[in-house]
Amino acid sequence: xxxxxxxxxxxxxxxxxxxxxxxxxxxxxxxxxxxxxxxxxxxxxxxxxxxxxxxxxxxxxxxxxxxxxxxxxxxxxxxxxxxxxxxxxxxxxxxxxxxxxxxxxxxxxxxxxxxxxxxxxxxxxxxxxxxxxxxxxxxxxxxxxxxxxxxxxxxxxxxxxxxxxxxxxxxxxxxxxxxxxxxxxxxxxxxxxxxxxxxxxxxxxxxxxxxxxxxxxxxxxxxxxxxxxxxxxxxxxxxxxxxxxxxxxxxxxxxxxxxxxxxxxxxxxxxxxxxxxxxxxxxxxxxxxxxxxxxxxxxxxxxxxxxxxxxxxxxxxx
Length: 318
Ligand code: HEM
Ligand SMILES: *[C@@H]1O[C@H](CO)[C@@H](O)[C@H](O)[C@H]1NC(C)=O
Ligand SMILES: *[C@@H]1O[C@H](CO)[C@@H](O)[C@H](O)[C@H]1NC(C)=O
Description:
The protein is mainly alpha-helical. The protein folds into 2 domains: 145 residues, Peroxidase, domain 1; 133 residues, Orthogonal Bundle (Peroxidase, domain 2), CATH 1.10.420. It has 13 helices and 4 strands. The strands form 2 sheets. The chain has a two-stranded antiparallel ribbon with strand order 1-2. Strands 3-4 form a two-stranded antiparallel sheet. It is globular, with a radius of gyration of 20 Å. The protein starts with a helix and ends in a 23-residue tail after the last helix. Protoporphyrin IX containing FE (HEM) binds next to helix 3, helix 7 and strand 3.
């Protein structure tokens, strides 16, 4: 009996409340539609916005959990300035939605949840799968550039990519499926230069690039060209969310080096193959939803001891 009480104490002591779908149903019923409206309006103005929102959620979740830490401006130590977050954008959309939410239901909706909702809507607006997003995250108390040192990097080996996902409680399947997010969005030539011209000792391209694709990439990103020029990460598959990215990766048409690495490992390769078999084909869309919900739970803070509801997303409350 005594042991039982101790065990229960431990369980309730460390386990936090869980996220749930519709967390704001009573406290701020329009929360999700307000965020969706801001994403939609911004996307009408700039078609890159959905990609920004999706990437932002990933980068938020991978440093200290999905807690809005990436949104904070706290000077030179701001997490968002980390090299691993290079090119992450869309902060203004989150901030604008937050301002409206503070007007409608002050002090209720966390910035971390706004990011998660915006990512969900980004997928939907790109004609990807529609899913219910869990909410109830609190915003974290820490932003520190050095905490982003372990972000997955485009030069990482498949071994290291897997490890970085395992460290967040995510599997190699999550790695493959979430990499599929690259079905929308673009990359700067910056991330390709070494892959095209300096991949092997003495110079030369990554041999894993399909020879039918290499000349095209070299033309888009020439050696002395503009490293800020952007190209779609998912070759020839438009801005819509689809499994074209996995097809491209399988056939050597990956644009990003880290995407190509999924072929370097028997397990990730087999998962990739499972979406293209002639029998019992897995559904990328369904699996993507599962993995997004899982990623959205990484390191979340749900107690007011560990997090707060920020009034402004780029600033801690006093
Ligand atoms: C597996 C490790 C990953 C690596 C190494 C990686 C790396 C990159 C790189 C280098 C870019 C180009 C950035 C730029 O040029 O501005 C990019 C873009 C992007 N990533 Fe990832 N990524 C990874 C996983 C993910 C995940 C899990 C998601 C979301 C679930 C995601 C969503 C995106 C999106 C949407 C873009 C396009 C952004 C835009 O158009 O501005 N990535 N990623
Ligand atoms: C940031 O994090 C690093 C590593 O954990 C730590 O050494 C440093 O003191 C932190 N900086 C601030 C200002 O909290
Ligand atoms: C395909 O799925 C069906 C039903 O889920 C199952 O009975 C069958 O054994 C599976 N076939 C293979 C090759 O996995």
